[in-house]
Amino acid sequence: MTDGLFQIWVFLSSSPLLWLTLTCSVYAGSVWMYRKSGSSPFLLPILVSVLVIVSLLLLTRTPYPVYFEGAKFIHFLIGPATVALAVPLYNQLRQLRKIWKPLTIALLIGSVTAIFSTVLIAWALGGSFETIMSVAPRSATMPIAMALAEQFDGQPSLAAVAVAITGIAGTIMARPLLNVLRIDRPEARGFAVGVTAHAIGTARALQVHETIGAFSAIGLSLNGIMTAVLVPFVPIILRWLGVA
After folding, report:
1. Cβ atoms of 89 and 218 closer than 8 Å
2. Which segment of 62-66, 103-107, 109-113, 212-216 scores lowest on mean pLDDT?
3. Using an 8 Å Cβ cutoff, are 188 and 217 in contact?
4. 156 or 41, which is more confident
5. Quick check: 86 and 202 in contact, CB under 8 A?
6. CA–CA dist 90, 135 (Å, integer)
7. DSSP 3-state assignment of 140?
8. pTM value?
9. Dihedral (CA of 79, 84, 88, 94) sign
10. E-only strand ranges, the chain
11. From the CA atom positions of the chain, what is the Rg in Å?
12. SS3 letters for 148-200?
């Protein structure tokens, strides 16, 4: 048994599969801890996994390209997983026809606020054109945000970090904030989470309530499209502000 484990370790340590295996193992452990804690929002699996993996990279002084070479298969799966969220959108078409007007208004306000408040804050703090274009699509899901950042001369890696921070913070804050605002309808709660906290918030919403999860997936999907429409206007604003 010991020899078998040692041989597995020797094989993994000399292969890019090491970091893929570690990432999956850490995530599985994080899910176990999250369930044991009674689904505490402060122990979100993605938050715990990121902290553990980053700590391991720092302790072992492993460059990010080395890690990514092993874990890139997970990155590849982000795209198909995002497309799969179209399923709940299809399942809620009847309900969507009834409330499409308030959802459209909420989508416009949410997308415009997320993008242009980020741009103005980053500009006020002295952010460069590259930095601002990296963080502008932070409320979209990761594949869309990284593609937009790359398209408009931002940094996809910085965009990914901004998206992760937005999703984690939004997921932790969403429930208490919606309770304070006395927003009880599951459609409204789910849509707000999807627009502001994208896939991370949707993963949490799907665990809480089926309808909340479905409308969170709808908010995530539609906000991704709206972000792709609005972000091309950011360089125009930056030129007006004298940044570009």
Report:
1. yes
2. 62-66
3. no
4. 156
5. no
6. 30
7. coil
8. 0.75
9. positive
10. none
11. 20
12. HHHHCCCCHHHHHHHHHHHHHHHHHHHHHHHHHCCCCCHHHHHHHHHHHHHHH
In angstroms, the CA 78 to CA 84 distance is: 10
* 152-157, Cβ contacts within 8 angstroms, sequence gap of 24 or more: 152/231, 152/232, 152/234, 152/235, 153/129, 154/130, 155/130, 155/131, 157/64
Q: How far apart are CA 144 and CA 225, in angstroms?
A: 9
Residue 83 to residues 78, 80, 202, 203: CA-CA distances in angstroms? Answer: 9, 5, 14, 14
CA–CA separation, 227 vs 229, rounded Å? 5
- The 10 Å Cβ neighbour count of residue 12 is 16
pLDDT in tens, 53-77: 889 888 988 888 888 887 777 777 7
Token duo for residue 113: 């606020």
- Band (11; pLDDT cuts 50, 70, 90): low
A 10 A CB-CB count for 200 gives 26
Q: Which pair of tokens denotes residue 139?
A: 């409320």
- What does the alpha-carbon distance between residue 144 and residue 198 come to, in Å, rounded to a whole number? 11
What CA–CA distance (Å, rounded) separates 31 from 51?
14
